[in-house]
Amino acid sequence: MQDTTKHQGLRRQLIDLLREKGITSTRVLEVMSQVPRHFFMDPGLVNFAYVDQAFPIAADQTISQPYTVAFQTELLALKPEHKVLEIGTGSGYQTAVLLGLSPNIYTIERQQELFKKTQRLFSKLGLRPKRVIFGDGYKGLPEEAPFDRILVTAGAPELPKELLQQLTPNGKLVIPIGTKEQKMMRFTKTAEKIFDKESFGNFRFVPLLSNKN
């Protein structure tokens, strides 16, 4: 896999577009300017890697629209020391962006095909999350909790309460909630069992599945 000057130029154009669309975090834009999205796309779609759209990947899932990746990542307000749980590894693109902001990334995927594929890809690209887990993201990762940040990259029909329980004090959960369309929500733990709730507009995600579905 190569990251050519053409890819880099297309990526710069994409970053300019994200800035125009309201992404203001310099750190998020800088990291996304360095992550080659085409490495995470299916071979037949690599020419569309820097179009601001979601595209299909294996197991009936999608690689998220770059704007959505930037928007969710910005909402996390990540610091390098933060311990982060990503629910829905998917293509691994969002994971790579998170790793550019913190080395303490735990990512969980319930689709075995994607889990195996991203493990191979991370190894090839030299990306080293703390753990890549095959499992049910609805339950979070209690054995590694608490987390400073939790990011859900699929649409949850309802708020998984287990995730709130796995946050540190002042920890944040960013999650799209809804069925056909989702509200982007951010929950911040302000005290024991007390959470500040914020809403950030409508998005469309593939559904967050659970073993109980």
Descriptive key words:
Rossmann fold, 29% helix, alpha/beta, two-stranded antiparallel sheet, 213 residues, 7-stranded mixed β-sheet, single chain
Notes on the structure:
With 213 residues, the protein is α/β, with parallel strands linked by helices. The protein has one domain (53-203): Vaccinia Virus protein VP39 (Rossmann fold). The protein has six helices and nine strands; from the N terminus they run ααββαβαβαββαβββ. It has helices spanning 5-20, 26-34, 66-76, 93-99, 112-125, 161-165; strands at 55-56, 62-63, 84-87, 105-109, 131-134, 147-152, 167-177, 182-191, 194-203. The chain has a seven-stranded mixed sheet with strand order 5-4-3-6-7-8-9. Strands 1-2 form a two-stranded antiparallel sheet. The N and C termini lie far apart (37 Å). The relative contact order is 0.13. The model has no long low-confidence stretch (mean pLDDT 95).
Concise description?
The protein is 29% helix and 25% strand. It is of the alpha/beta class and 213 residues long. It is globular and about 50 Å long.
- CA radius of gyration: 16 Å
Give the mean pLDDT: 95
Helical fraction: 25-40%
What percentage of amino acids are in beta strands? 25-35%
What is the architecture at the second tier of CATH?
3-Layer(aba) Sandwich
Net shape: globular
> Span between N and C termini?
37 Å
The CATH superfamily is identified as Vaccinia Virus protein VP39
CATH class: Alpha Beta
Low-confidence stretches: none
Order of helices and strands: HHEEHEHEHEEHEEE
- Major beta sheet, strand line-up: 5-4-3-6-7-8-9
CATH topology: Rossmann fold
Assign the structural class, choosing from mainly alpha, mainly beta, alpha/beta, alpha+beta, or little secondary structure: alpha/beta
| Biggest sheet details | 7 strands, mixed
